[in-house]
């Protein structure tokens, strides 16, 4: 080891690595030593002669002052073409480079004129970004300043073309190297959120199109540099990758209790930088587009998304009508809108939500629970939105237990992500199974919480997680029955795959163990099957192979057949349909309601609770009343969350629970008046629905964004034996504006009477159960039932 290398390691001050602020002092001392040593070499190479128009300059970490103990030197000998001859410059360069090589210091060197610096920067993006940091070391400073200013001027002048090139380069590098925050053996320099991304941030600010975040971003950068310095000292080499075998030694040097602790801190720091570089690059591109397209004063282009949110320059922003300070559901709705549109929440919106939105309280408002389930089912758009919410501190406000798994590394070789990111990836994977289960909202919650027990000192993360999930769901206000299902799924989330791979899948004893694990419920078994595949596929390709998938499918099919055989039709459907009412005595109707209906007017009342609205409608039954009411509510801009439709002896008593993306309050008199108009043949009140269908933003209903991976085909089936008086049809479909009206019109077109219906929307999916009869009463013949099912599927899957 040369004296220079020894000196650089000595300056690292290994005893001070754990001291706060020591890293910056250490790197400053290493940089000062490097500059001093190079200046000494310059004087020796000059041999007492003054070289006009020649200078030594640094780029890279030495120029920035953030080099590590064993970082290489990137040097440029800049010269004026009218100064020394080419032969003299080459000889002088040799007198500089050879002493550096002799010490064993890694050297990247070049000899260029100012014009050549400019030309290289124009042709090579990486060289251009490096030359933006060009810093004078020795010699004629004017030459260095001329080269740097020329390169910076060109960088700003050519930002329109260079930024798209920079974006492509950054995205390709991120795809190649992965996320530093979620890697077990991360490359601290090249990975997403690493040191190279800070160079990108500086280059973006040099383009004068945007500023970059400071504060916590700079602190995160310093922490990553500290880990990089520790790697140099521990390995004795200028490496940037934190290998598994070096993690314990680096943790000890940095004053951490163990390798998991340093990886957790490293992950958190990388996430801050990754989010910053993504947002800054996006805003720089937006700024450049605005500059290119501007013709006079530019007004912000705001596209309404619903719930007081707007799309602006590729981000979701809060509008002036959003009630941030008093509505605890606003953060949930804002996140839902952004995730469904596959765009991030703007940094200003996140800061506003974090600083001013009230806590959801305990229990959460019912509207918050519904929107949260929809958010989890939003698909791939959830990842970026959740990351922003997490960094802003909103996720921990919702789920305090999240802090214990945030950025927590996993030692299992099959996992490719930290615990928290794996949970989010599992949620995204589970969103592809929402049509396969009766309660997709419970699947989403189980996916989010299944590894919440992977905390320090947990012996069995499944059982620990079940206890934590129970506490979280109680705080949310989840019903006891639903909470028990999710807690069971968390506790048993490994049972299906373990039994399938370690036991005989067709052995009755194996089937009995699995049946007991799901509490004898077909619905829970279906949820566990979906959760098992989502969990494994999110972990990585090693966790979900064709062999495992085949064994799981065999055991699942055998167990489901056994449960259906034991439970009958209810077990097969996995639902508990409601029975039609037998008489009006079952209902409590006010005298006012009966008087209005007697004279032919509907009676409408509205009750608002926690951001949701209950609309009760009593009216004379008629053909198409269900379809017209659903269409009218959609035309008024309301999203139906659930409904209970009951009809008997010519009287319809219907209960609708709706949400209002635009913030409007349902007006009973308006709804009643419009129902009368529609009943008399005036379809004008429904006209707004067609306009809303044509222009409705993705975020306002339960429509999912393109490419979200959601299943498209509707599933409809007859539940045999569910009723002696009516044919029961269950429909599972992706919700959209006007869907219930379309189904109601289809049933009316098929000349069917809707005796009762239970309408529910879970995580963006409708689970609707219709009790239908012929006009004269009685159940449908098999052929008629099959025709009705086919018509419903065509209606739901149609445009």
- Cα distance spanning the termini: 72 Å
The counted number of beta strands is 15
Strand order of the largest sheet: 8-9-11-10-14-15-13-12
Largest sheet: 8 strands, antiparallel
Q: Given the structure, what is the number of helices? A: 32
Q: Which stretches are poorly predicted, pLDDT < 50 over at least 5 residues?
A: 569-577, 579-586, 697-710
Strand content: 5-15%
> What is the CATH class of the largest domain?
Mainly Alpha
Q: Assign the CATH architecture of the largest domain.
A: Orthogonal Bundle
CATH topology-level fold name of the largest domain: cca-adding enzyme, domain 2
What does the overall shape look like?
elongated
Architecture overview:
By secondary structure, the protein is α+β, with helices and mostly antiparallel strands. It folds into 4 domains: 155 residues, Beta Polymerase, domain 2 (2-Layer Sandwich); 133 residues, Four Helix Bundle (Hemerythrin (Met), subunit A) (Up-down Bundle); 270 residues, cca-adding enzyme, domain 2; 208 residues, no CATH class. 52% of the residues lie in helices and 13% in strands. The strands form 3 sheets. Strands 8-9-11-10-14-15-13-12 form an 8-stranded antiparallel sheet. A 4-stranded mixed sheet has the order 3-2-1-4, sandwiched between helices. A 3-stranded antiparallel sheet has the order 5-6-7, with helices on one face. The chain is elongated, with a radius of gyration of 33 Å. About 4% of the residues have low confidence.
How are the secondary structure elements laid out?
Elements: H1 3-11, H2 22-46, E1 54-59, H3 60-64, E2 73-79, H4 86-103, E3 107-113, H5 114-123, H6 125-131, E4 135-139, H7 141-157, H8 159-177, H9 195-206, H10 216-235, H11 247-253, H12 259-293, E5 303-306, E6 309-312, E7 315-318, H13 330-340, H14 347-356, H15 366-376, H16 381-391, H17 394-398, H18 419-430, H19 440-449, H20 461-476, H21 480-491, H22 495-502, H23 508-517, H24 522-539, H25 546-567, H26 569-573, H27 591-598, E8 603-609, E9 612-620, H28 625-635, E10 639-648, E11 651-659, H29 668-679, H30 687-695, E12 715-718, E13 727-734, H31 739-749, E14 753-762, E15 765-773, H32 782-797
Parallel strand pairs: 2-3
Antiparallel strand pairs: 1-2, 1-4, 5-6, 6-7, 8-9, 9-11, 10-11, 10-14, 12-13, 13-15, 14-15
Helix pairs in contact: 2-4, 5-6, 5-7, 8-12, 9-12, 10-11, 10-12, 11-12, 13-15, 13-16, 15-19, 18-19, 18-24, 19-21, 19-24, 20-21, 22-25, 23-25, 24-25, 28-29, 28-30, 28-31, 31-32
């Amino acid at each position: 080891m040369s004296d220079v290398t020894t000196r650089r390691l000595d300056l690292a001050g290994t005893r001070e690595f754990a001291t706060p602020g020591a890293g910056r002092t250490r790197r400053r001392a290493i940089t000062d030593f490097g500059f001093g040593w190079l200046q000494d070499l310059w004087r020796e190479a000059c041999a007492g002669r003054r070289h006009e128009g020649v200078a030594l300059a640094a780029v890279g970490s030495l120029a920035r002052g953030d080099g590590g103990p064993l970082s290489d030197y990137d040097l440029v000998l800049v010269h004026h073409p009218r100064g020394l001859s080419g032969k003299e410059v080459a000889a002088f360069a040799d007198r500089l480079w050879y002493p550096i090589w002799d010490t064993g210091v890694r050297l990247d060197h070049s000899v260029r004129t100012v014009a050549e610096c400019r030309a290289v920067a124009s042709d090579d993006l990486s060289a251009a970004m490096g030359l933006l940091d060009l810093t004078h070391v020795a010699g004629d400073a004017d030459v260095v300043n001329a080269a740097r200013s020329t390169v910076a001027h060109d960088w700003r002048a050519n930002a329109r073309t260079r930024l798209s090139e920079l974006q492509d380069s950054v995205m390709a590098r991120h795809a190649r190297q992965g996320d530093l925050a979620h890697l077990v053996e991360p490359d601290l320099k090249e990975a997403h959120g690493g040191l190279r991304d800070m160079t990108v941030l500086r280059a973006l600010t040099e383009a004068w199109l945007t500023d970059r975040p400071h504060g916590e971003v700079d602190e995160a950068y310093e922490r990553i540099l500290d880990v990089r310095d520790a790697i140099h000292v521990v390995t004795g080499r200028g490496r940037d990758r934190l290998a598994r075998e070096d993690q314990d030694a680096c943790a000890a040097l940095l004053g951490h209790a163990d390798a998991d602790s340093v990886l957790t801190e490293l992950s958190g720091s990388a996430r801050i930088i990754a989010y910053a570089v993504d947002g800054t690059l996006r805003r720089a591109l937006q700024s450049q587009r605005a500059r290119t397209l501007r013709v006079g004063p530019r007004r912000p282009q705001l596209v309404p998304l619903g719930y007081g949110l707007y799309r602006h320059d590729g981000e979701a922003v809060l509008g002036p009508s959003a009630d941030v300070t008093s509505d605890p559901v606003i953060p949930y709705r804002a996140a839902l809108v952004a995730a469904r549109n596959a765009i991030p929440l703007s940094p200003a919106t996140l800061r506003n939500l974090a600083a001013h939105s009230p806590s959801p309280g305990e229990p959460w408002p019912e509207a918050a629970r519904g929107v949260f389930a929809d958010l989890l089912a939003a698909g791939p758009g959830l990842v970026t939105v959740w990351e922003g919410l997490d960094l802003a501190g909103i996720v921990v406000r919702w789920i305090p237990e999240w802090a214990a798994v945030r950025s927590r590394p996993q030692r299992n070789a099959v996992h490719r992500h930290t615990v928290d990111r794996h949970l989010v990836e599992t949620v995204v994977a589970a969103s592809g199974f929402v049509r396969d289960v009766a309660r997709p909202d419970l699947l989403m919650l189980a996916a989010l919480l299944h590894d919440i027990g992977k905390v320090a000192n947990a012996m069995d993360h499944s059982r620990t997680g079940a206890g934590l999930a129970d506490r979280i769901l109680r705080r949310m206000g989840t019903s006891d029955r639903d909470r028990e299902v999710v807690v069971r799924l968390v506790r048993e989330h490994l049972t299906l795959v373990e039994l399938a791979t370690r036991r005989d899948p067709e052995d009755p004893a194996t089937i009995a163990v699995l049946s007991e694990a799901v509490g004898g419920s077909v619905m829970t078994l279906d949820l566990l099957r979906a959760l098992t595949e989502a969990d494994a596929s999110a972990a990585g390709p090693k966790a979900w192979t064709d062999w495992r998938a085949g064994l799981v499918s065999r055991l699942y099919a055998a167990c489901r057949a056994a449960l259906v055989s034991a439970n009958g039709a209810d077990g097969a459907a996995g639902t508990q349909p409601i029975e039609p009412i037998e008489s009006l005595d079952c209902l409590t109707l006010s005298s006012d309601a009966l008087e209005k209906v007697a004279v032919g007017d509907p009676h409408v009342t509205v009750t608002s609770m926690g951001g949701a609205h209950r609309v009760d409608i009593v009216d004379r039954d008629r053909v198409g009343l269900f379809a017209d009411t659903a269409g009218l509510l959609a035309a008024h801009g309301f999203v139906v969350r659930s409904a209970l439709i009951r009809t008997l002896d010519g009287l319809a008593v219907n209960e609708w629970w709706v949400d209002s993306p635009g913030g409007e309050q349902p007006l009973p008199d308006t709804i009643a008046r419009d129902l009368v108009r529609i009943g008399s043949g005036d379809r004008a009140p429904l006209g707004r629905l067609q306009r809303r269908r044509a222009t409705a933003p993705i975020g306002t209903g339960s429509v999912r964004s393109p490419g979200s991976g959601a299943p498209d085909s509707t599933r409809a089936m007859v539940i045999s034996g569910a009723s002696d008086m009516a044919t029961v049809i269950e429909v599972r479909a992706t919700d959209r504006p006007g869907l219930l009206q379309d189904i109601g019109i289809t049933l009316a077109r098929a000349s069917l009477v809707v005796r009762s219906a239970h309408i529910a929307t879970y995580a963006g999916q409708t689970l609707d159960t219709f009790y239908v009869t012929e006009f004269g009463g009685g159940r449908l013949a098999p052929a008629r039932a099959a025709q009705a099912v086919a018509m419903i599927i065509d209606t739901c899957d149609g445009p």
